[in-house]
From TrEMBL:
NCBIfam families: thioredoxin (TIGR01068)
Domain of life assignment: Eukaryota
Full protein name: Blast:Thioredoxin-T
Assigned keywords, A-Z: Disulfide bond
Pfam families for the chain: Thioredoxin
Compositionally biased residues, Polar residues: 129-139
Stretch list, region Disordered: 121-169
An annotated Gene Ontology molecular function: protein-disulfide reductase activity
Length: 169
């Protein structure tokens, strides 16, 4: 079953109630054609993985605060979470990618968390720590590369690019 999120409080409650199940959040808009196209596939996957996943839909026009929190800029955007932490995000109406991602995180989410914990040398949720997003881990792994990256401007000044890709003077 797919649940339409009504507010930030509603989303927070659903995430809390999900426990260790995979959470898939579909950011959509009523006027979005690709959102309408992928919606039946999402419904099908929600039923298929009803025992191991919670599927939530967030209307970006009705829930701007949630949309901003997850930095959603295009629809549909799918956010995959486990134990309250984001493990993956992708945008677009790609039903094959959606199905493969759900299968991957439903079956491998424990292995994924173990791998994430090993990469960061931080304790996982079961060890008293908190899970991190895959994107933050990937950016952490490439931190040295990002910190050393530089961009030469027209006047010859060098500006270092921080790990989030923002230019600093």
């Amino acid at each position: 079953m797919v649940h339409l999120v009504q507010s930030k409080e509603d989303l927070d409650q659903r995430v809390l109630e999900a426990g260790d199940k995979l959470i898939v959040i579909d950011f959509f808009a009523n006027w979005c054609g690709p959102c309408k196209i992928i919606s039946p596939k999402l419904e099908e996957l929600a039923q298929q993985y009803a025992d191991s996943a919670v599927v939530l839909k967030v209307n970006v026009d009705d829930n701007e605060d949630i949309t901003i929190k997850y930095n959603v800029t295009s629809m549909p955007t799918f956010v995959f979470m486990k134990n309250g932490a984001v493990v993956d995000i992708f945008a677009g109406s790609n039903s094959d990618k959606l199905a493969k991602s759900m299968e991957k995180y439903v079956t491998n989410v424990c292995e994924c968390q173990l791998e994430c914990d090993q990469l960061t040398d931080e304790p996982g949720p079961s060890e008293g720590g908190s899970a991190q997003s895959i994107s933050s881990i990937e950016s952490g792994t490439a931190e040295a590369e990002d910190a050393a990256a530089a961009d030469t401007t027209n006047d010859g000044a060098i500006e270092a690019i921080d790990q989030e890709g923002v230019l600093e003077n």
